[in-house]
Amino acid sequence: MKGVGDYRVLFKDLTLMAKVGCIAGERDFAQRISLDLSVEFSTAQPPAKLTIEDTVDYAKVRDALGQMVRERSWLLLEQLAEDSCELLFTRFAAISQVSLTARKYVFSDASWVAVEVTRKR
Hints:
CATH class: Alpha Beta
Helix content: 10-25%
CATH topology: GTP Cyclohydrolase I, domain 2
Distance between the termini: 12 Å
Order of helices and strands: EEHEHEE
Number of helices: 2
Structural class: alpha+beta
Number of strands: 5
CATH superfamily: GTP cyclohydrolase I, C-terminal domain/NADPH-dependent 7-cyano-7-deazaguanine reductase, N-terminal domain
């Protein structure tokens, strides 16, 4: 349902160190990944009365993703992207949609490879 305020919190190039890859050696050491992230939410509060509790605290979003990535490993970048969306829906009840691009920097002849996913609650 639309609220008084509809908002989108955006992250560009959130850089994390993750253990992700199909080849076992890729998961032995964390490698650089980056995320572009859009989380959408609505609030019933008018903009002049908004507090941090009425919104999605982007510092907590960053911290939650960072903790998950430090504690786990994945065979596929797709799995990391799906788990990221699920984490955000679980931790932040206000979020109605997550769009995420996850990038790895693994090839010398390509700047990066990426997976994009959009999930709605």
